[in-house]
């Protein structure tokens, strides 16, 4: 499940202040799923408000797929997505392009049984 570098901007494209301000109204409406995991990764999906997609700059999108590109951490944080360190945007749910899929390596501590 490696990240395809062709689905990202070559380097993070930071938002201009005016672009960031257009997104502020949506930040409180971003939905974060519960975490789920397998042996290698912890996962979660982040659901952006559908109207927010209209305010995100065009160069954040993959025109061939009609979805957001895979975003660098600096990019998804600039959109207002807040998560702990270590999360990586690895996929977009194409039927619902406002849903972004994230993964983080499972640590030994998080796999330890709870007493």
UniProtKB/TrEMBL annotation:
Role, per record: Binds to the catalytic subunit of the cyclin dependent kinases and is essential for their biological function.
Pfam families recorded: CKS
Annotated GO CC locations: cyclin-dependent protein kinase holoenzyme complex
Keyword Oxidoreductase: no
Keyword terms: Cell cycle, Cell division
Record-stated family: Belongs to the CKS family.
Protein name per its UniProtKB record: Cyclin-dependent kinases regulatory subunit
InterPro entries per the UniProt record, alphabetical: Cyclin-dep_kinase_reg-sub, Cyclin-dep_kinase_reg-sub_sf
Transmembrane segments: none
Stretch forming the signal peptide: none
GO molecular function: cyclin-dependent protein serine/threonine kinase regulator activity; protein kinase activator activity
GO biological process: cell division
